[in-house]
Design goal:
The chain is an alpha/beta fold. The protein is built from five helices and five strands, in the order H-E-E-H-E-H-E-H-E-H. The N and C termini lie far apart (28 Å).
């Protein structure tokens, strides 16, 4: 069965029914790609409104340097300020990348966030009200 992950064509997508933002991180991200993702995310937050959830998918994501980590930290702060209810990360094959993003989230996020091995588990977590 094809799920949303297989159908994602953009780096940021919205499911307004679920009030959910989907972010896709793939491979190694350079500064231009990081800023593009940040801008897409900023627009998604404005569109979906407060009380949303985030599912971030890291397909073959490679850890990034300090400058791009700062952009990601800014995105986490945007979520904290923008009314994020909770977030889930699906690591794919990116163990080190997931660890990097977990560390950044622990430092900046004021909302619950968890790591998952499967898309389905992440969706189930985000679908609960707790």
């Amino acid at each position: 069965m094809n799920d949303k992950r297989d159908r994602m064509k953009k780096i940021a997508e919205i499911d307004q029914t679920k009030k959910r933002i989907y972010l896709r991180f793939e491979g190694y991200m350079n500064m231009d790609q990081a800023r593009e993702l940040q801008e897409a995310y900023r627009n998604a937050i404005k569109e979906v409104g407060s009380g949303y959830t985030i599912l971030s998918y890291f397909s073959e994501y490679k850890p990034v340097g300090p400058e791009i980590q700062e952009v990601i930290s800014e995105m986490i702060q945007m979520a904290s300020n923008g009314g994020c209810r909770k977030a889930a990360r699906v690591g794919g094959n990116s163990v080190v990348g997931t660890l990097q993003l977990r560390r950044l989230s622990q430092a900046k996020a004021n909302y619950p966030h968890e790591d998952f091995e499967t898309w389905e588990d992440a969706e189930a977590y985000l679908n609960t009200d707790d």
